[in-house]
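So, could you explain this one?
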Amino acid sequence: MSSDPPVHVLRLGHRRERDKRITSHLGLTARAFGADNFVLSGEEDPNVLETLESVSERFGGNFEAHYEKKPMGWLRNFVQNDAGDGSPGVAIHLTMYGLPWNETIPEIPTDRPIAIVVGGAKVPGEVFGICQYNISIGNQPHSEVAALAVFLQTWKPNGTHSSNFTGGMTVVPMESGKQILSSEEISE
């Protein structure tokens, strides 16, 4: 983990059968783009958490994921009392109804932990009031995975490079083909 304040991604309203792939992709995107934590809410789904844990074990990193039964209480506590370090954090809601991301991101404090809220089926109206920033990547319907990727790439331009992804497997970048090395092959 870098010395930057932690980045949390809160997934609201997960539905086990309907959202399992999209929620897994949100968690994997959060991890790959430099977030530190993924908070799952809605229907409890150990499969999503196991997927994220498995990828982190195999490919490395300090990424953590957990289930939160009461996400609104967690979010209120995050912005009012304790973002994990004993002080309040900043909550950012990614919504197509928000202000333009490219104009708003520079205004967000960078010295406090942030929670990025990504909605599901129906986002409670109170989210708009709890979050200090309601940001749109675009004002048209689109993928929440894409919105998270654009936000994190802008927030942490070196996200994948600033994270410690030294795990049991390492992907070797190549122009053509694919190569994955095990930790044993790397240490030889």
